[in-house]
Design goal:
It is a single chain. It is built from three helices and no strands. By secondary structure, it is mainly α. It has one domain. Helices cover about 75% and strands about 0% of the residues.
């Protein structure tokens, strides 16, 4: 089994991003319907806006998980245990 930043980033993605999508997309649809009177030029369900926002948030979640995972994977495990 190979370990490293990619494995840690996948773990962070599973723990953070996937539940966020599961709750965030339905919440965005409900919020869009509730705020439909305040959205000018955009329907209550605009697939391009929803896909764009989802893509940006997915990119941020990936970077947010990969940067600490890369730092954690770059040090020796014994050195990390000694500092604690």
């Amino acid at each position: 089994m190979k370990s490293g930043p990619a494995m840690a980033a996948r773990g962070a993605e599973r723990a953070l991003a996937n539940p966020g999508w599961a709750f965030g997309i339905p919440a965005a649809l409900v919020a869009g319907r509730l705020m439909s009177s305040q959205l000018w030029g955009v329907g209550s369900y605009d697939p391009w806006s929803l896909a764009g926002a989802t893509s940006v948030l997915a990119l941020c979640a990936t970077a947010d998980g990969f940067i600490p995972a890369h730092r954690a994977a770059s040090i020796e495990p014994m050195q990390a245990l000694r500092t604690e």
